[in-house]
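Narrative of accomplishments. A recurring question from our advisory board has been how the design workflow behaves on a single, concrete structure rather than in aggregate. To address it, we present the structure tokens for one chain from the evaluation set, followed by the sequence designed for it. No filtering or post-editing was applied between the two.
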């Protein structure tokens, strides 16, 4: 698991506190990956009895992870790295990423303990009584419907909340989680001196002090005004009243150097006392950094669900999707959009229309023309997130609903429909093509050139591919390198100019713009109709 460490120069570490495991990647100043390691929560820390890193409550909606499990995982990870021969004295800077939205509740007095950690014992031994709430709500939780409605009402509705914070109220977002905690666990909440996100909690462990949240991850709380970068007083008030600001601390730009590692790290693992801690951020913002997305770029991960990251100059939040402050340039923004009906739907149609073969699926795409003779398809096998719709809806060139298509036309209707939807919703959040725009395709389906060609034609932008396994972790290491003192003043992209480039996969067909600009307008009209017919 652990790559043998062969190192000469200085190191930069990126940690990723993800749902199922804690990962680390170490790079040198030339961006070579020197070491990678991980701790898998379920199998390596069985005493916490998690499944997939979480506990699911009896209601099926409450999903939590023990704070101490993350602490213990860090103890273990550092020991594994030490055994693999990593020389911590050469680490110049470190940073990290973490699952977004999860919240950690530090008990009164925990700040003092954090500041006095002793090198003779591990972190978990010293921090075991530091959490007022042992099990932290995480991003998979969906138990806060009531709190979401309250938060939206308090600021004048879903659109208004999105306008301020970048997203309408979402159950997993931290504002509603805090609101629920204050109400249902009043005693523990009263004993809390600080609330961290998982990212700032992890940074605090290295800093030996409460770490500021970064603007990127703080945008996933429904509490931050993404334009002023200050907490929205109206949202704070609705979530937990006036004392909340003190519990959250002041957020900072994601590239901030928070300080140096605490003496604990120097004494226990031989870190230099000059090793910088760069603010930690959420896994999605960190992935944007790991992929080195630039203005005008759009990254599409084609997996079980399809996820889109967009670099935005201006924030234009909508009722769907999320706008976060950009982790690379805090004056700009990024958007995140999730679509549930991705690869599983593509596989279903491959089985039904192409005899279970990807080659047959590809052939169908090659045999059918751009625009599919006007046939348009909506395939929401499970209730979609963006837009909130369900069912299969097919239309002919006259916008008449039809019940079936030929096998080839159906394959194209699915793939064109999926990418028209990705484009429509990205544009609604402010995505627009600029000279040099690229689509970066990742995930399983990005290996299929014919699927990529449709993506490329629908977006009318060249499509590139890149290997982004562990992009959040790598992004954290890149951010550490960028934040290190010797890089001071250089832009993120200058520091990373020698990182592996994405590969050009396909370029748009000459007819693409003409066909798909028009089809996108039709798609938007038809989507409205589908939503109207489905009702609220
Ligand atoms: C984003 O809003 C999410 O909830 C997830 O992608 C988590 O960040 C996964 F860790």
């Amino acid at each position: 698991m652990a790559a043998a460490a062969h190192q000469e120069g200085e190191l930069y570490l990126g940690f990723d506190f993800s749902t199922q495991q804690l990962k680390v990647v170490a790079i040198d100043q030339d961006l070579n990956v020197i070491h990678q390691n991980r701790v898998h929560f379920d199998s390596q820390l069985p005493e916490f009895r998690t499944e997939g890193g979480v506990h699911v409550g009896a209601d099926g909606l409450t999903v939590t992870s023990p704070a101490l499990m993350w602490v213990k995982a860090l103890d273990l990870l550092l020991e594994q790295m030490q055994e693999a021969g990593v020389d911590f004295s050469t680490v110049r800077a470190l940073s990290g990423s973490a699952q977004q939205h999860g919240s950690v509740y530090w008990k009164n007095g925990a700040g003092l303990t954090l500041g006095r950690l002793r090198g003779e014992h591990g972190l978990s031994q010293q921090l075991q009584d530091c959490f007022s709430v042992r099990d932290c709500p995480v991003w998979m939780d969906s138990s806060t419907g009531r709190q979401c409605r309250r938060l939206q009402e308090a600021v004048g509705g879903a659109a208004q909340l999105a306008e301020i914070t970048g997203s309408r109220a979402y159950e997993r977002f931290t504002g509603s989680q805090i609101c629920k905690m204050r109400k249902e666990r009043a005693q523990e909440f009263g004993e809390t001196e600080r609330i961290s996100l998982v990212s700032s909690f992890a940074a605090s462990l290295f800093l030996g002090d409460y770490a500021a949240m970064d603007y990127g991850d703080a945008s996933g709380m429904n509490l931050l005004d993404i334009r002023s970068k200050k907490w929205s007083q109206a949202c704070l008030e609705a979530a937990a009243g006036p004392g909340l600001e003190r519990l959250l601390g002041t957020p900072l730009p994601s590239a901030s150097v928070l300080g140096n590692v605490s003496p604990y790290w120097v004494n226990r693992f031989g870190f230099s006392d000059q090793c910088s801690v760069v603010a930690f951020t959420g896994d999605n913002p960190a992935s944007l950094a790991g992929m080195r997305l630039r203005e005008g770029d759009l990254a599409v991960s084609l997996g079980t669900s399809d996820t889109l990251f967009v670099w935005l100059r201006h924030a234009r939040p909508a009722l769907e999707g999320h706008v976060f402050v950009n982790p690379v340039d805090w004056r700009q923004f990024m958007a995140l959009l999730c679509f549930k009906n991705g690869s599983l739907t593509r596989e279903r149609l491959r089985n039904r229309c192409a005899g279970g073969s990807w080659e047959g699926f590809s052939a169908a795409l090659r045999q059918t023309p751009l625009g599919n003779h006007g046939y348009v398809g909506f395939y929401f096998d499970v209730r979609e997130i963006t837009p909130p719709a369900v069912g299969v809806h097919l239309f002919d060139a006259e916008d008449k609903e039809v019940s079936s298509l030929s096998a080839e036309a159906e394959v194209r209707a699915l793939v064109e429909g999926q990418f028209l939807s990705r484009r429509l919703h990205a544009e609604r959040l402010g995505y627009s093509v600029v000279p040099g725009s690229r689509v970066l395709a990742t995930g399983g389906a990005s290996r299929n050139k014919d699927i990529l060609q449709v993506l490329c034609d629908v977006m009318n932008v060249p499509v590139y591919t890149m290997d982004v396994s562990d992009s959040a972790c790598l992004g954290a290491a890149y951010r550490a390198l960028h934040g290190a003192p010797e890089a001071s003043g250089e832009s993120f992209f200058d520091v990373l100019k020698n990182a592996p480039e994405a590969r050009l996969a396909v370029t748009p067909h000459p007819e693409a713009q003409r066909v798909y600009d028009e089809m996108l307008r039709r798609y938007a009209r038809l989507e409205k109709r589908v939503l109207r017919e489905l009702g609220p």
